[in-house]
Amino acid sequence: MAEASARKPSRIQQRNRKRILDAALEVFSRHGYRGATLDLIAEEAGLSKPNILYYFGGKEDIHVTLLNQLMETWLDPLDHMDPDGEPLEEILGYVHRKLEMSREFPRESRLFANEILQGAPRMGPHLESDLKPLVDKKTALIRTWIAQGKLADVDPRHLMFSIWATTQHYADFDAQVQVLSDSDTDALDGADTFLDQMFRKLLTP
């Protein structure tokens, strides 16, 4: 017990790790993996480069840690699609949760997008072991709802891709969205109403 306690990171160590990861999230989401450097992360964190290397083995170690933390957050809304719920509302609820994630976690969304654009070199195993089985399970559920006449006949996988594309766009292309949107309104507020109407019309039998 004493040995386990001795291995437990101190509050300062926990705080510094969090500080480094938050700084790295900012740097990776802004510059991508290739453009990010330990010097940029250290500068953003307000720590020295040797201090960064005390906590992490290098840039890839930090990046993989962030991706591992992200996966659980990313999969949670899809995992909570309830088989016993009202099908249309379950899917629309998923759309709204994904859009809210673009509001709350824009840097995480860009981190994920940058990794996928590079061919998922560090996240590939997670896509195979975590994301694919969950998507397989939920698309099978959607097919069941369609067969029961509760949803319009659409391709469940393309439906999923469309939900991701339309919701994550607001985080991944934020600079473009801000330029093109009406400056007096919140683009995401308008998106919420528009996407609800679009998917409701598409999915209503």
UniProtKB/TrEMBL annotation:
Which residues fall under the DNA-binding region feature?
37-56
Checking InterPro entries in the record gives: Homeodomain-like_sf, HTH-type_TetR-like_transc_reg, HTH_TetR, Tet_transcr_reg_TetR-rel_C_sf, Tscrpt_reg_YcdC_C
Please list the residue ranges annotated as the HTH tetR-type domain.
Answer: 14-74
- Record's keyword terms, sorted: DNA-binding
| Database matches in PANTHER family | HTH-TYPE TRANSCRIPTIONAL REGULATOR RUTR
What name does UniProt use for this protein?
Transcriptional regulator, TetR family
Species name = Shimia sagamensis
Lineage, highest ranks first: Bacteria, Pseudomonadati, Pseudomonadota, Alphaproteobacteria, Rhodobacterales
